[in-house]
Structure formats: structure tokens, C-alpha cells
Design goal:
Length: 220
Amino acid sequence: MRLKPAVSSFLNLIFPPRCALCGAVAPSAGMVCPDCQRENPCVHAKKRIFVPEAGQTIVCKVPYEYNGKIRQSIIRFKFYGQLQSAAFFGMKVAEEFTENKDQFDLVTAVPVSAERLRQRGYNQSERIARVAAEKLEIPYKECLMKTADNKEQHKLEKKERKRNVQGVYSPIGQEIVGKRILLVDDIVTTGATLCACAEVLFAGGAKEVCCTAVAEVELS
Ligand SMILES: [Zn+2]
């Protein structure tokens, strides 16, 4: 919803925009306060993920490391319903592609299972992806579904993660044929989930796949 500038500044006076990471008053909506910006700098990581079944290596661009206030904020967003953080996360992942947004036809998200959606009420990655799509002015399309309620990746050892996500994603409709797709997740660790989703997109006819996530987790 777009408000007239006068209405918007009046509302900002009564409800000042809050920092997405600490809740202090922020310069504008979806932004972080100067302290949080200093303490949580973007690292602009670029991860390469090999998708063996497609014979392709895809790139995953990630603005943050998964630690400090970024980690806490993602946990509140993902598990405790703090949905307003999607504005900030979506903006930060979109910024990774602002200069080459013409390289995509559509934005999509890593799906959650129907069971998880029922429990949580939302797909956190979709929330981020929809904001990013709007910022980049690229259509958001639901292209994937998760057909099995598998174990959560973060509870598994590195070597178990690839097998855990195999065969759990399926394509939806014909939207992906010939398309250059930006695939969005909340966090990336080994890249197994993005790899499994990219494999399905390629098998469904996608021309190119590129990925992004808010933060990269370092496995200890
Ligand atoms: Zn802050």
C-alpha cells in the first residue's frame, strides 16, 4: 500500500520506523539503526553450488553472515512470527542484484511442506522473496512445492543433508520453462536445499537459476 507523503510522515511521527534488528527508532521503514549497521556489516558472500544432475554450477549471493543480531532477527522472524523483518531481509537480498536485475524473468522461493505451513502459518522464504521481487520489479511466482515433511536440515550432519532433501521438491505448473529464475531462501549452510530446488527447476525446463539467502551459516 502506498500512502501520500503527508499521511506517511504523519504516521511516521506517531509510529516511527523501527530498526529491524534491535527495535530502536530507525531512519526509515525497513532500515536498521546506525549502531546495528556498524555492528552487522554486509559481507556480500558469493557461494558456488554444483548441481550434478544438471551439470551446472549456480551462484548464491548472500548479504550477511549468520551471527549476532542478524541470527537473532532471523530466528524471531522464522520461528516467532516477527514478520515485519521480511521488509528488511527482502530489501537486503534485492540489493545484491540491483545492478543486474534484467538477468531474471521471475523470483521464486524455497517452499515449506503443507504440514509446516499449517504449523507456522507462513513460508518465511516466500515473505523475503516477495519483498525482493517487488524491489527488483520482477514477478514473483510459486514454482516449487515440497511434497514431503522431511527432517529439518539444521538438525542433521553435513553428510545427511543432501539425502534428506532429495526427491522432496516438485515443480508447479509450466511457468519455469525457458525462464531465468532467482531462487530465494532464508539461510544457506551446505547449499543442499538450494541444490535440490535448482535441480527440480532445471529438470522442469528452467534456463538459468541463481540463488540468494539472507545469511550464510558456517558449519562448525
Ligand atoms: Zn538497531
